[in-house]
UniProtKB/TrEMBL annotation:
TM region positions: none
Organism: Clostridium disporicum
Gene3D superfamilies per the UniProt record, alphabetical: 3.30.420.40
Family statement drawn from the similarity comment of this UniProt entry: Belongs to the ROK (NagC/XylR) family.
InterPro entries on file: ATPase_NBD, ROK
Keyword hit for Hydrolase: no
EC number: 2.7.1.85
Recorded superkingdom: Bacteria
Keyword terms of this UniProt record: Transferase
Organism ancestry: Bacteria, Bacillati, Bacillota, Clostridia, Eubacteriales
Protein name per its UniProtKB record: NagC/XylR family transcriptional regulators
């Protein structure tokens, strides 16, 4: 069976490996995202491709990365964690240097594609993926088709606006892991520069009711996002991905928060975790390559 070199680019790490046409991750590894220029970044991707040059059955290179991605020309239009790559003809340049076909897609869209390919949405024609990490990402699959939007900005739930006492907030500012960490730091009066892991917050909440209340507020923010998305798009399922999806209690806590919304019963849908977790970017990028 032929293989795809699949690369999942993040602001902190680049995950990479080989994925076959059936969606099986055959091998994988990761490295830090350290380059600060487009030239250096492309060189880094070429080095990854060279790791697999001995394989004779490589179809090409598939890339998942954050931001607004012109998936037709393979150009990152906006990429807040890798500003130097914005507007760069990445697909064209990487193809020229490696002599391989290259396809690029938004990371949250790749999560949705992975779930459709061989995950918890395999039998669904209408579903939504919401990824919760440094920011909020979204993939919309309606009428058995990924919705990218006219300007490749479909599913960018992070820009949805909510309102609090201080004024307007984007969902990124109250529903992401970054937001939870900020809420925790404000409560503990910890410096913005001090490193705090989300897992540490959940662990401390087991003994501190005030921190548990902060987490419950955060769950409520996510629940309102789910409610809004479900009321607008009426999907069969909403799948939750990102690092936090590894937590066993995630879905039950979100269900509790959703049930507190009086109108949830009128617009409800099934809430589940994404199946593929950390491999979703690799699998979804490969699926996008196989099924452009």
């Amino acid at each position: 069976m032929r293989k795809i070199i699949s690369i999942d680019v993040g602001g902190t790490f680049i995950k990479y490996g080989l994925v076959d046409e059936a969606g099986n991750v055959l091998c994988k590894n990761k490295m830090e995202t350290i380059q600060k220029t487009a030239e250096g970044f492309v060189n880094e991707l070429c080095e990854i491709a060279n790791l697999y040059k001995e394989h004779k059955d490589i179809l090409g290179i598939a890339i998942s990365m954050p931001g607004f991605i012109n998936n037709i020309e393979g150009i990152p239009l906006v990429c807040s964690v890798l500003r130097f790559i914005e507007g760069y003809k990445l697909q064209e340049e990487l193809s020229l240097r490696t002599n391989l076909k290259v396809r690029i897609e938004n990371d949250a869209n790749c999560v949705a594609l992975a779930e459709k390919f061989s995950g918890n949405a395999k039998e669904c024609e209408d579903f939504i993926c919401i990824t919760i990490g440094t920011g909020i990402g979204g993939g919309i699959y309606l009428n058995n088709k990924l919705i990218r939007g006219k300007q490749f900005k479909g599913g960018e739930f992070c820009y949805m606006i909510t309102k609090d006492k201080a004024g307007y907030q984007k969902l990124n500012e109250n529903s992401s892991m970054t937001a939870l960490i900020k809420m925790y730091k404000e409560y503990k009066k910890i410096s913005d520069t001090e490193k705090v892991l989300g897992s540490d917050i959940f662990k401390e909440a087991e003994k501190d009711e005030n921190i548990k209340a902060i987490i419950n507020e955060w769950y409520g923010n996510i629940a309102r996002m789910i409610y809004n998305v479900s009321s607008m798009l009426n999907p069969e399922k909403i799948l939750i991905g990102g690092g936090v999806s590894a937590r066993e209690e995630l879905i039950s806590e979100l269900q509790n928060a959703l049930n507190e919304i009086p109108w949830w019963k009128h617009v409800s849908c099934t809430i589940e975790k994404c199946k593929h977790e950390n491999d979703a970017g690799l699998i979804g990028a490969a699926y996008n390559f196989i099924n452009p």
